[in-house]
């Protein structure tokens, strides 16, 4: 086995300055339901200098900024902010922008987002069902005709779609992928396999296998933290290896989800853990996982030094 020691493109990370920008969920005194529990520790400035310091010796050459639940009344404001960071710091190198696909202004917002050279994708979390038991009693926005009409506009702008939804909603995502074959769907956070007992992982794997059968999808190995548990290769290795098995390394990409996942791990040891997990893969597969897949899927010209 040979551990990867090359350049890294982080396919999922965030920057923010809650003291100067409108993030309702990061405001003082605000607490929303959060899968990692208490998130007070991340209500602080997090910019590229913090991120590079956290990465330590790892050679991160590019990153994808993912929208941060900025005030939904100003989605283009967040894009302008992220693009300004890129000019000042050299990061990020692509943007997943905010767009509410079922709003009256969706056409104008998508046009405005697509006008920014760094925007490659948009994200709109589709909501319920919130548990496997609710499937069949309610549907996500992926099945809503108004939302789908907004989704249909992505193709004309050459935009991808970043999907964040738990695995039990992926059958709706399969329908979406098949109905819009020219739009790439990038599944965030491995489909959120929050429970790691054998029965839950088997159900997660089945849903992921059905999703992976769609040719126009990819997935991020990101957001794998577990509340109250330290991030460890032993805990997350089975998830990452299943992703590679189902999708192939050419459709799986590394993402740190920092600073959110700083609630579960330090960045440098996390990256080291990912390197340990994928070390049994061949050199080309490791390269795809850490930089090649994200560069191709998001269309990023990242250096290979």
TrEMBL record:
Q: Where are the transmembrane segments?
A: none
Q: Which SUPFAM superfamilies match?
A: Metallo-dependent hydrolases (SSF51556)
One Pfam family in the UniProt entry: Amidohydro_2
Q: Which InterPro entries match?
A: Amidohydro-rel, Metal_Hydrolase, Metallo-dep_Lactonases
Q: Which residues form the Amidohydrolase-related domain?
A: 10-300
- Supply one GO molecular-function term: hydrolase activity
**Which family would the database say this protein is a member of?**
Belongs to the metallo-dependent hydrolases superfamily.
Output this protein's name. Answer: Amidohydrolase-related domain-containing protein
């Amino acid at each position: 086995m040979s551990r990867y020691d090359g350049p890294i493109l982080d396919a999922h990370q965030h920057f923010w300055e809650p003291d100067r920008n409108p993030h309702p969920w990061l405001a003082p005194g605000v607490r929303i339901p959060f899968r990692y529990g208490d998130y007070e520790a991340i209500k602080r400035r997090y910019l590229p200098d913090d991120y590079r310091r956290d990465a330590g010796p790892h050679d991160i050459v590019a990153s994808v900024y993912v929208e941060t639940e900025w005030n939904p009344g100003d989605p283009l404001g967040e894009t302008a902010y992220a693009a300004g960071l890129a000019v000042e710091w050299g990061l990020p190198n692509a943007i997943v922008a905010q767009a509410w696909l079922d709003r009256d202004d969706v056409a104008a917002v998508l046009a405005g987002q697509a006008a920014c050279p760094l925007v490659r994708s948009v994200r709109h979390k589709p909501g319920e069902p919130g548990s496997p038991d609710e499937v069949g009693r309610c549907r996500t926005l992926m099945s809503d005709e108004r939302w789908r009409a907004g989704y249909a506009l992505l193709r004309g702008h050459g935009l991808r779609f970043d999907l964040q939804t738990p695995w039990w909603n992926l059958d709706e995502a399969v329908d979406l992928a098949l109905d819009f074959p020219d739009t790439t769907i990038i599944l965030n956070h491995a489909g959120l396999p929050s429970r790691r007992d054998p029965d839950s992982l088997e159900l997660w794997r089945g849903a992921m296998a059905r999703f992976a059968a769609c040719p126009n999808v990819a997935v991020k190995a990101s957001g794998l933290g577990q509340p109250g548990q330290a991030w460890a290769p032993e805990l997350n290795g089975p998830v990452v290896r299943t992703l590679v098995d189902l999708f192939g390394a050419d459709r799986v990409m590394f993402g740190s989800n920092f600073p959110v996942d700083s609630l579960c791990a330090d960045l440098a040891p996390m990256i080291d853990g990912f390197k340990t997990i994928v070390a049994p893969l061949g050199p080309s597969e490791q390269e795809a996982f850490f930089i090649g897949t994200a560069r191709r899927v998001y269309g990023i010209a990242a250096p290979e030094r």
